[in-house]
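User:
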Amino acid sequence: MWVKNTLERKFNVRNHYRITGISVLVILSGLFIYHCGDKQNIPQTANSGHKIIHLPLAGDIAERYAEISGLAWYRDQLILLPQYPDRFSLNNVSSIFRIPKREIIDHIDQSGPSSNLTATRIDFDEQGIPEDLPGFQGYESIVFIENKIYFTIEINQDGAMQAFLVEGLITDNMERIVLDKSSLRLLPMPVQIKNFAYEGMINSENKLFIFYEANGANINDTPQMVEFNLENGDIRLKPFLNLEYRITDATSLNKEGRFWVINYFWPGDFDVLNPASDKLAALSNPPISFSRDKAVERLVEMQYSQDGMKLSHNAPIVLQSAPNGDSRNWEGIVRLENRGFILVTDKHPQTILAFVPINK
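Assistant: Predicted structure:
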């Protein structure tokens, strides 16, 4: 089924690698590693920055084509959202995945089995939505409110970007999610940038706040977010704040109204994003110096209040870079209690689930 979908759908994703003589060697080396070793056995990073502990995965969700685009907690389960759930169809029903929190914590504490983490499928009834939306480019973010779920969807229709919000329900036994096609709502786009839409979402006080991906000063001088009223369905654009590079996901709010976003820069996006001066570079922990040829992988904390969004007083957290210099396109984030964060990449450079411990 996945092969059939791959052949039939024209995937419009960012091309992170140019095919040059060097990159061909890299690809061949990667194929050798893929066939001769455990592709989850990724070396720990050793440079400055916050430590990253890899959480090895088993099964289909570990494959690069999983292209995970969001994380969320539902009860005591970590929910992993593939951008294209139909790549994991069984009996013509798409799938997303879950991993018990206890297994993750046991693995981190090394008090459980040393085997890789195995994710359980959740049937994902899309109600034909991908086929009904020309230019469908997948699901980009996920939020749970009790047994209701909200997803953002990205569309590229003949070069014009669109985004939708859709609601679904999860069964009590967590075996099935069913989307409500009648709940589809078109989201206004602050700016038009190819392959950019809404990739972060939080909920507070009967509202969803949905964050556009690009909010840098040179491309979006009046950044805005979507406010969706859960009670009456009203959609409004509200002021946001300039933050260079990309926002690719957000944690839930804590009791103080603070939340963290992934703030990521891939050097191949330099011409698209045209980054302005990074005002947070010197304040980051550790401080960074921007280079158009070097990735930025960090977490930035924001503060929500009735007056809007602003940066918190906590320093941005810079992640250790990969030993081989690869850019890691972190696409999902959740808090893990008071221990730190769980992050996940899409397919660049491969599927990586990781724990970032934070010392309190």
